[in-house]
Write a structure and sequence with these properties.
Layout (H helix, E strand, L loop, with lengths): L21 E7 L20 E4 L15 E4 L9 E2 L9
Parallel strand pairs: 1-4
Antiparallel strand pairs: 1-2, 2-3
């Protein structure tokens, strides 16, 4: 793993979007809707949440933001899973 902020931010100003740990997402895992979409969210409910970005344990081709896996929220935590805190502008 690498310390947070070791690489430049992406075009949206976000750091470390892939490669250190899988990131739990709020989205339920499921098929995306048909057609073009910006920021699709998948299913409205389900048993598994979306995991993105790969981890230090996987092969290099997993380590990208577009990689989407799934896991049950009750599966517990280990050193391959994490989450991202978001600070929004209060204005």
């Amino acid at each position: 793993t690498r310390e947070v902020g070791a690489y430049p931010a992406n075009p949206w100003g976000l750091f470390d979007m892939h490669g250190n740990v899988w990131e739990w997402c709020a989205d339920w895992y499921g098929d995306y809707s048909e057609g073009l979409a910006t920021d699709p969210t998948g299913s409205k409910n389900g048993l598994h949440r979306v995991l993105r970005g790969g981890s230090w344990e996987q092969q290099a081709w997993f380590s990208r933001s577009a990689t989407r896996a799934d896991g049950p929220p009750a599966s517990g935590w280990d050193n391959r899973l994490g989450f991202r805190l978001l600070l929004t502008d209060s204005e």
